[in-house]
Amino acid sequence: MPVLVITGTGTEVGKTVATAAVAATARAAGRSVAVLKAAQTGVGPDEPGDAQEVARLAGAVTAAEVARYPEPLAPGTAARRAGRAPVHPEEVAEAAAKLATDHDLVLVEGAGGLLVRFDAAGGTLADAAELLGAPVLVVASAGLGTLNTTELTARELRSRGLGLSGVVIGSWPQHPDLASRCNLADLPDVAGAPLLGALPAGAGALAPPAFRSSAPHWLAPALDGTWDVEAFRKREAP
C-alpha cells in the first residue's frame, strides 16, 4: 500500500511544511498524491487546515481530513470539549486505504507527536500506522532537545515493529548554533534511521511555485529528491 505516515517529535517542528515538501517532490517525480490529516484541531468549519495548506504549497494534491475540532488541543481533548465524536485509528486507516486505491502516494499527517491521543481508549497515529502496515517519517527540530524526543519516537516505533523511513529536519536555521550542527550527525544515530532532508527556515512562506521548484533540493533520493546529506553535513558541521 503506497502510504507514508508523517509524525512530528512534537508540535511546531515543521511537520505540515515537511509534508508539503514530500508531496511536491513526489508530484515532481510524476506521482499522484493525496494528503490525509488524521485530526485537524484549532480551525473553524470554513478555515483551511493543514491538508489544505499542503495542497496550496504542493499543487495538485488531494486534500482530506477525517475530522476537525475548533480548539487547538490534542484531538481527544478537543473532541471531548466540542461534544463531538472522536477520531479512531480504524477510521484513519480506512480513509487512507481508500485514498490509496487511486493515488500513487498517500501521506497521512498526524497531530503533534506520535502518541497524541485521538480518543478515550488511547488510540494514536501509531495505531493507525500499525493497521496500515505503513512506514513512518519523523519530522524533528534542529536544535537542543531534539535528540531526546527523536530517540523516544524511534524507540516507540521499533517497539511496535513499525518501519522508520528516516528523519527530516523541519526547519534548518539560517545561522545554526553548535547544537544544531552537531545534531546532523547525532539525529540519525539516535533514530537508527537516515537523515532524509532539511527544510530551510521560512520555507512555508515561499510562494507556491518557488516552494515546488525548491522542495526536491531539500529531500534525499529516498523521498524522490536530490538532497545530498553528506555534502550538507560537510558544509554545516562544526
UniProtKB/TrEMBL annotation:
Protein name: ATP-dependent dethiobiotin synthetase BioD
Amino acids binding Mg(2+): T16, D50, E109
Subunit text: Homodimer.
Membership in a protein family: Belongs to the dethiobiotin synthetase family.
Gene that encodes the chain: bioD
Catalytic activity: (7R,8S)-7,8-diammoniononanoate + CO2 + ATP = (4R,5S)-dethiobiotin + ADP + phosphate + 3 H(+)
Keyword Cell division appears in the UniProt entry: no
Binding positions for ATP per the UniProt entry: E12, V13, G14, K15, T16, V17, D50, E109, G110, A111, G112, G170, S171
UniProt-recorded Gene Ontology molecular function terms: dethiobiotin synthase activity
Described purpose of this protein according to its UniProt entry: Catalyzes a mechanistically unusual reaction, the ATP-dependent insertion of CO2 between the N7 and N8 nitrogen atoms of 7,8-diaminopelargonic acid (DAPA, also called 7,8-diammoniononanoate) to form a ureido ring.
